[in-house]
């Protein structure tokens, strides 16, 4: 044990039971400011005493270098052993410089960009006094009704895992103790929160352990393998037991199998919610179940503070359970250097220079340019210069384009789409609201129509309000609100070129409008510099390169719809079977309106020459996949080349395809590149019915293309653990 650990052990031994329990409690920041009469009264009503505040180990939701320093100073004086506070906050996709929402970043298919976004977020958060960020959120999501889909990177386990690692690397760097521009990361929500039934927030999650391991645990594991220091338990049940009281999840999987030695923290209130979950009769039993399952810090409620001491004294729980939790908390504080420097990165002068600086905003703009997805273009984009443009809609002149988890981001300081166009002075730009987000009226419509009549081209800036996605924002209908659909219909009736710019936090049902418009650019919530990013994309200064990280359904009736589905025993043939007794609907096609991996460019890309070659890598046989991609258009562009594999027959059913690799490449007009991917046996492993994770001999198919539907195919075989080619031509 090194000196530091020795000193920590000594400190742990000096703590009273009450002080240990204090370290396991996270209070909201309002308990740490000078409480007015009312707030102090509320605190007493909650049974939170001044002593408890003095003993508590971490704070939720505070930032600002000066404010944090004051808070820390007060706390250090109150705490008998001067144990520094951990300052934790929701910095999900930016602190003050807000990047596109994670669902948008996922559509960039550029993990380096995600890493840079997290580096910027950590730099701004750390200088503002934050030590730990409650990110990345890596929940797999296949249901756009769930509002928190905006925080995820979508429906694919592999893509989510690549981004999980990138986000953790960006936040933490590789020297957390000495690099004050970094923060510790807290991956969430462990586990399976994205699979809530009906897409309804906080609802039940039910799935087999095999599916949980195959699809839903993969991205959390990736974050843990990337060295993420904390993990947050989810609100939902996992096989009938809430994650926050789930031994299998928090001890067997997380600690024993994955070897995680970091801190577990409950989601806000999740310990106390074991009572309404009906697995705890009262808060005392909730405290017992959470600590036994292995929750180190209780966030937002006081079950630990109010009951753990008695549970120990009644020998209902061992004090060693508490010691192991407090040890991990002290170790995290030590690894962040807080004992030597409790203020860590907080620095008022540097904060003024770093937060929201030009370089950060430039990076946010580039990220937005790469995260938008061009879903339709009849050819009217990019915009021809010197046109009269009418920008119409609730997002025409609206800075609220930061998303639901943009905390310190400021919509009032955020450039609007109209302002971006007007600042460039290339177009004569008119603007009109046309409709509210949820409500409209004839007057607004008439004004918008009048404005649009004088234009050559109409840009309809429409979408969801930021608070229509995010936490506690599930929607049972995922259409654009009717008032906006009416606006689009009336604009369409003017028979002018019509471009939709869509601001939203989830895949929406675009069927009602997609045939009426000439182009549609999905911009999600593009962040602080999103408006200019959209300007650059619409005018061709930047060429759209985003690809969907989540399927867009044709209608809500198809949900859940995702690309890596099972074939079923009666698959609908690709030629659209006329047979009755096959897996299909009477009233809707099976396929998505826009599939996973799809996105258009202002140029076109041709794929050819898909071939396989046997190669020996590190002593074992692998297969090298080669494909030629050519820019067959007139402008330079970036293409995300995607590689999928299908296991033709497994011990359990296997998806019709699974993303296994991708590369984003830039090509000049006419330029071609030969790309190589390597298939290794490890890519073919999956969870069998007995939960062993291994590959089987048999036939496979590799598919390569620019989305999950249009791909070239070549078969290959795995025989006695070795990859063997079948010399067929690429189909
Ligand atoms: C919320 C969210 C979680 C967030 C936490 C702290 O309820 O579920 O994602 O980090 O509370 O704000």
TrEMBL record:
EC numbers on record: 3.2.1.21
Keyword vocabulary terms for this entry: Glycosidase, Hydrolase, Signal
Fibronectin type III-like domain mapped to chain residues: 639-708
GO biological process: glucan catabolic process
Any one GO molecular-function label of the UniProt entry: beta-glucosidase activity
Superkingdom: Bacteria
Gene3D superfamilies: Glycoside hydrolase family 3 C-terminal domain, Glycoside hydrolase, family 3, N-terminal domain, Immunoglobulins
Catalysed conversion reaction: Hydrolysis of terminal, non-reducing beta-D-glucosyl residues with release of beta-D-glucose
Keyword Signal: yes
Enzyme class, first EC level, given as a word: hydrolase
UniProt KW Signal keyword: yes
Similarity comment: family membership: Belongs to the glycosyl hydrolase 3 family.
Family annotation (PANTHER family): LYSOSOMAL BETA GLUCOSIDASE, PERIPLASMIC BETA-GLUCOSIDASE-RELATED
Protein's name according to its UniProt entry: beta-glucosidase
Source species of the chain: Sporolactobacillus shoreae
């Amino acid at each position: 044990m090194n000196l530091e650990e020795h000193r920590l052990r000594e400190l742990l031994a000096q703590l009273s039971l009450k002080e240990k329990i204090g370290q396991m409690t996270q209070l909201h920041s309002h308990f740490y400011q000078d409480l007015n009469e009312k707030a102090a009264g509320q605190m007493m009503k909650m049974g939170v005493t001044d002593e408890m505040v003095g003993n508590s180990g971490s704070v939720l939701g505070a930032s600002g270098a000066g404010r944090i320093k004051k808070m820390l100073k007060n706390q250090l004086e109150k705490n008998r052993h001067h144990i520094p506070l951990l300052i934790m906050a929701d910095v999900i996709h930016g602190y003050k410089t807000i990047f596109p929402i994670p669902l948008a970043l996922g559509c960039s298919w550029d993990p380096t960009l995600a890493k840079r976004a997290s580096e910027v977020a950590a730099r701004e958060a750390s200088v503002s006094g934050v030590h730990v960020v409650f990110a990345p959120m890596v929940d797999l999501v296949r249901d756009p009704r769930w509002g928190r889909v905006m925080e995820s990177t979508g429906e694919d386990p592999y893509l989510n895992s690549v981004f999980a690692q990138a986000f953790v690397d960006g936040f933490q760097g590789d020297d957390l103790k000495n690099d004050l521009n970094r923060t510790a990361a807290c991956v969430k929500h462990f586990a399976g929160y994205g699979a809530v039934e009906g897409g309804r927030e906080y609802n039940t999650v039910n799935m087999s352990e095999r599916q949980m391991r195959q699809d839903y645990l993969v991205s959390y594991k990736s974050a843990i393998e990337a060295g993420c220091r904390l993990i947050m338990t989810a609100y939902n049940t996992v096989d009938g037991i809430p994650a926050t009281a789930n031994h299998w999840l928090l001890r067997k999987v997380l600690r024993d199998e994955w070897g995680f030695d970091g801190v577990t923290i409950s989601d806000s209130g999740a310990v106390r919610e074991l009572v309404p979950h009906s697995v705890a009769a009262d808060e005392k039993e909730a405290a017992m179940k959470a600590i036994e399952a292995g929750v180190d810090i209780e966030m937002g409620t006081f079950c630990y503070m109010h009951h753990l001491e008695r549970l120990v004294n009644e020998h209902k729980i061992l004090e060693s359970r508490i010691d192991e939790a407090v040890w991990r908390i002290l170790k995290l504080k030590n690894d962040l250097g807080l004992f030597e420097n409790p203020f860590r990165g907080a620095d008022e002068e540097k904060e003024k220079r770093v937060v929201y600086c030009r370089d950060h905003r430039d990076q946010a703009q580039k990220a937005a340019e790469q995260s938008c997805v061009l879903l339709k273009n009849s050819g009217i984009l990019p915009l021809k210069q010197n046109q009269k443009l009418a920008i119409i809609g609730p997002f025409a002149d609206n800075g609220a384009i930061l998303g639901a988890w943009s905390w310190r981001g400021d919509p009032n300081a955020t450039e609007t789409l109209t302002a971006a166009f007007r600042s460039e002075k290339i177009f004569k730009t008119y603007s009109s609201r046309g409709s509210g987000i949820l409500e409209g009226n004839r007057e607004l419509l008439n004004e918008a129509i009048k404005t649009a009549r004088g234009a050559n081209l109409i840009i309809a800036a429409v979408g969801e309000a930021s608070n229509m996605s995010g936490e506690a924002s599930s929607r049972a209908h995922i259409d654009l609100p009717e008032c906006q659909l009416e606006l689009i219909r009336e604009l369409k009736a003017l028979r002018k070129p019509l471009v939709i710019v869509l601001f939203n936090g989830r895949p929406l049902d675009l069927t009602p409008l997609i045939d009426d418009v000439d182009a549609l650019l999905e911009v999600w919530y593009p962040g602080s510099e999103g408006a200019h990013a959209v300007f650059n994309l619409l005018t061709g200064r930047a060429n759209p390169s985003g690809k969907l990280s989540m399927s867009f359904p044709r209608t809500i009736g198809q949900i859940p719809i995702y690309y890596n589905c099972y074939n079923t025993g009666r698959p609908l043939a690709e030629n659209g079977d006329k047979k009755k007794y096959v897996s299909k609907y009477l009233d809707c096609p099976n396929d998505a309106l826009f599939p996973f991996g799809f996105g258009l460019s202002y140029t076109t890309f041709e794929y050819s020459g898909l071939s396989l070659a046997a190669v020996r890598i590190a002593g074992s046989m692998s297969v090298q996949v080669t494909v030629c991609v050519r820019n067959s258009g007139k402008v330079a562009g970036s293409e995300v080349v995607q590689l999928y594999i299908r296991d033709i027959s497994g011990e359990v059913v296997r998806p019709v395809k699974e993303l296994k690799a991708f590369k984003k490449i830039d090509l000049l007009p006419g330029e071609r590149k030969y790309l190589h991917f390597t298939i290794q046996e490890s890519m073919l492993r999956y969870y069998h019915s007995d939960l062993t994770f291994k590959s089987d001999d048999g036939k496979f198919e590799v598919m390569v293309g620019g989305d999950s539907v249009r791909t070239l195919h070549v078969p290959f075989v795995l025989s006695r653990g070795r990859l063997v080619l079948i010399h067929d031509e690429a189909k």
